[in-house]
Design goal:
The chain is mainly beta. Helices cover 7% and strands 44% of the residues. Strands 1-2-3-4-5-6-7-8-9 form a nine-stranded antiparallel β-sheet, with no helix packed on it. It is globular.
């Protein structure tokens, strides 16, 4: 499977210049997903660049709306815009702490266990490991879906951290829906300021 992206001055990297106009960037062609997969009654194995096992575990949503501000939406749209004259960007102020995506990884997805639960495992570059449990079931006329994901990135660089994400969604027959999401991140490597304080 190949998925490519052509971008010209994307909003995710837009920034105002000194005259108050958006800086323009040259168009670029990038691969988003490049993988080979095998699937059968035993499950699915994916090899190549793509989603880690826990990616999407913070974003379970049955509304079908995919709203622009859901979870990390504004971060994607305006991530490089700064607050006033400060060096603080929109993207640096918050994150949905979801699983990893667009990484070279080996991933295994189990078939449905009991018809409602499946498990995904993956290992990727930078010693990254992910696991997630996915749940989906109809209870009467109500659809319910949920996911619990965990990511352990043991890279010795700036991304040395763990993440835990949980989200759930319910869709009623009349279209009314409810969605909740909770996620945390634990940085295992102290920031430069913490290192100087502790030394």
């Amino acid at each position: 499977m190949w998925e490519w992206q052509w971008q010209n001055s994307p909003t995710s990297s837009a920034a105002f210049n000194t005259s108050g106009k958006f800086d323009e960037t040259s168009a670029s062609l990038q691969d988003r997903k490049t993988e080979l997969y095998f699937a059968g009654k035993w499950g699915k194995v994916s090899l190549g660049k793509g989603d880690g096992a826990a990616n999407g575990s913070a974003e379970v949503d049955l509304s079908g709306t995919t709203t622009i501000d859901y979870s990390g939406g504004n971060q994607d749209l305006l991530s490089s815009m700064t607050y006033g004259s400060s060096a603080v960007t929109v993207g640096s102020t918050y994150s949905e702490f979801d699983g990893e995506s667009r990484n070279d990884r080996l991933r295994y997805d189990t078939p449905k266990l009991g018809k409602v639960v499946s498990i995904a495992l993956s290992v990727a570059n930078a010693n990254e490991q992910e696991i997630a449990v996915w749940y989906a079931q109809n209870v009467g006329s109500t659809k319910i879906a949920a996911a619990l994901g965990y990511t352990d990135n043991t890279d010795t660089g700036t991304t040395d951290r763990t993440r835990t994400a949980l989200s759930a969604s319910a869709l009623l027959k009349n279209g009314l829906n409810f969605t909740v999401s909770y996620s945390t991140q634990d940085n295992k490597t102290p920031t430069p300021s913490q290192q100087s304080t502790n030394s």
